């Protein structure tokens, strides 16, 4: 049987199904091999930890939504607000549990690595000093290891590395596939790909439509909170301050030559004088004479660019010096952890604000008929559906007032 005849016997669904299986199997093998090479202790577990938080949130929401201790505080409010408060509470509980579980796991892994490095350093020092005895623990000899590199993982470490690397990849692929299904469902391609949403996939599509966008919002919150913990509050404030200062320096530098202070007779009048003098040095005759009034402006723009660059470099230098000062905090373990926890809390508030802004924009687009965002999720979605219901009570009246104002 020829290849063309074989393909004819396959339906569109079967063909895509087998191609997807083949590509997925290849990716799985590569992921497992990479994980085995790196080892569990050197592997990032962000996708797994995200999936853990999402799974815990799903379980809490499905079985304990009506038993949330916070919901009682909102029993006199609109039912939509009460239900959203319950969902957000369980989301926070799931994220805190995720942080405790995987934070503890990372601490154990780091402690084991530090212990191995300490033993390796002791052996290296013993050999360097000419000592004949080799440190041993229960008759196990610790061979000298290169302190500048990483300690090679053992067989069990490699096995778990392969398993969790495979889990990471499968979680990422599942997330991408689910998001693609959600997006494609509101495009003209849906009619062509309807087979992917019906039949055996119908039950899966039901869950995907309910939870996908909620889990993506959880991922956004997790990434921002992790950044807050790693940077800490002080480093976060420094980063934000330096970014704002750089923007201000660029705007001020570009505008400075055109401000009254830079006019002739002003404190920085030499800028205007220099622009005129430079224009006079250029021979402008005939058709080029019309440039006499334009070149001073061009030179002022050049001066502004130079000033903006100088001020930006100055701000960068100040930021670098502040970073060196904050290294003192980073070198003290207790201070670093306290700063990180406070930073995570502050960034969590920022993350929730970012999520609220994203959903408000989607809600506004639907309100004005630009894009029906509610088609991206189900009304049963705890976060997205809950926020849209709450916005019906809180945001819709504001949007109607804005519409009436500009009408």
Ordered list of secondary-structure elements with their pairings:
Blueprint lengths: L2 H7 L2 H27 L7 H19 L14 H50 L7 E2 L2 E2 L13 H30 L17 H54 L14 H12 L13 H36 L2 H35 L16 H23 L1
Antiparallel strand pairs: 1-2
Helix pairs in contact: 2-5, 3-4, 3-5, 3-6, 4-10, 5-6, 6-8, 6-9, 7-8, 9-10
Biggest sheet: strand arrangement: 1-2
What is the succession of H and E elements?
HHHHEEHHHHHH
Number of alpha- plus pi-helical segments? 10
Binned, the helix content reads: over 70%
Q: From the alpha carbons, calculate the radius of gyration and give it in angstroms.
A: 30 Å
Largest sheet: 2 strands, antiparallel
Strand fraction equals under 5%
Please report the total strand number as a whole number.
Answer: 2
Low-confidence stretches: 130-149
Note the overall shape: extended
In short:
This protein has a two-stranded antiparallel ribbon with strand order 1-2. It is mainly α.
């Amino acid at each position: 049987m020829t290849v063309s005849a074989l393909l004819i016997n396959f339906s569109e669904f079967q063909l895509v199904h087998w191609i997807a299986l083949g590509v997925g199997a290849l990716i799985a093998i590569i992921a497992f091999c990479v994980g085995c090479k790196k080892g569990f202790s050197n592997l990032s577990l962000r996708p797994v930890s995200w999936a853990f938080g999402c799974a815990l949130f799903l379980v809490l929401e499905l079985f304990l939504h009506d038993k949330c201790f916070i919901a009682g505080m909102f029993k006199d409010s609109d039912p939509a607000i009460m239900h959203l408060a319950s969902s957000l509470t369980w989301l926070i509980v799931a994220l805190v549990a995720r942080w405790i579980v995987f934070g503890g796991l990372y601490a154990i892994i780091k402690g084991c690595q530090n212990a191995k490095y300490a033993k390796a350093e002791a052996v290296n020092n013993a050999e360097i000093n000419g000592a004949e005895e080799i440190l041993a623990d229960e008759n196990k000899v610790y061979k000298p290891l290169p302190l500048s590199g990483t300690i090679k993982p053992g067989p069990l470490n490699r096995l778990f590395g392969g398993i969790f690397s495979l889990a990471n990849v499968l979680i990422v692929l599942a997330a991408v596939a689910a998001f693609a299904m959600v997006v494609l469902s509101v495009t003209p391609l849906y009619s062509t790909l309807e087979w992917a949403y019906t039949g055996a996939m119908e039950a899966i599509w039901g869950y995907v439509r309910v939870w996908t966008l909620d889990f993506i919002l959880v991922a956004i919150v997790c990434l921002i909170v992790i950044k807050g913990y790693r940077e800490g509050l002080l480093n976060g404030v420094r980063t934000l301050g330096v970014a704002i200062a750089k923007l201000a320096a660029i705007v001020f530098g570009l505008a400075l030559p055109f401000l009254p202070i830079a006019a002739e007779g002003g404190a920085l009048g030499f800028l205007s004088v220099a622009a005129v003098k430079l224009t006079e040095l250029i021979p402008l005759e005939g058709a080029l004479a019309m440039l006499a009034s334009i070149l001073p402006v061009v030179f002022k723009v050049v001066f502004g660019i130079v000033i903006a660059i100088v001020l930006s470099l100055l701000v960068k230098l100040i930021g670098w010096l502040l970073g060196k000062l904050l290294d003192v905090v980073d070198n003290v373990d207790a201070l670093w952890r306290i700063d990180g926890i406070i930073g995570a809390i502050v960034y969590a508030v920022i993350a929730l604000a970012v999520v609220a802004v994203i959903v408000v924009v989607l809600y506004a687009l639907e309100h004005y008929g630009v894009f029906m965002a509610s088609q991206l999720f189900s009304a049963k979605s705890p976060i997205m559906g809950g926020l849209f219901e709450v916005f019906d009570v809180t945001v819709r009246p504001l949007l109607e007032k804005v519409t009436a104002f500009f009408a």
